[in-house]
Amino acid sequence: MTPLPGEGPIAVVLDVDSTLIQDEVIELIADHAGTREEVTAVTEAAMRGELDFTGSLHARVATLEGLSATVLDQVRAAVRLTPGARTLVTTLTEAGHVVGIVSGGFMEVVAPLAEQLGIETLRANTLEVVDGHLTGAVLGDVVDPTTKADFLTRLAAGAGIDMDRTVAVGDGANDLQMMAAAHLGIAFCAKPTVREHADVAVDERDLRRILELLGIDPLPQADDEGGHPLA
Hints:
- The chain has one domain: Rossmann fold.
- The chain has a seven-stranded mixed beta sheet, sandwiched between helices.
- By secondary structure, it is an alpha/beta fold.
- 42% of the residues lie in helices and 19% in strands.
- The protein contains eleven helices and seven strands.
- It starts with 10 loop residues before the first strand and ends in a 17-residue tail after the last helix.
- Helix 10 (192-197) links the parallel strand 6 (184-188) and strand 7 (200-202).
């Protein structure tokens, strides 16, 4: 058990791809473009910290140019929650804690996922669509490591929660700044470099383990073994 100092609500920020969900959304989209092998190789290098995240994202999204935006419906249906996700979010929110999600992935998937889970504060990238097709670009600034850390800080401040009552959960190198900004940075089934820099690591793919670390008893949840929340 790793209780946080003080009393009152805590703020928990979760990464999405390979953390809240089992998948990397850009790889699911790349399946439809026939570029999954290329995209996966770049994603894995970026998550290990070997590539600049913003540059790697632009390179991966560029391979999606020309895809019909209708494939996003199929991608949303293919997304699988990580086991324990519903229990984690419901237990925290019903106890008065604050949960946010921030992703280097895409709002087209993150927004409906957040709605399904009852998460009100979120941030992700937005794919550019023109005439019903992906252009191979994202709109606005990329959600990069600095953006993730800033999201955590703003979420806590907006809820009136001190930073020593904050938790960040992630798996990739682009989560490290956010995890460092939090009082407790948790590496979840993470890349080696992330585990090395985290305060604590969870190696079982079950988000209920986060509640155990925080000393919070989980609420019983049906249908919480993972699965397709947006199908």
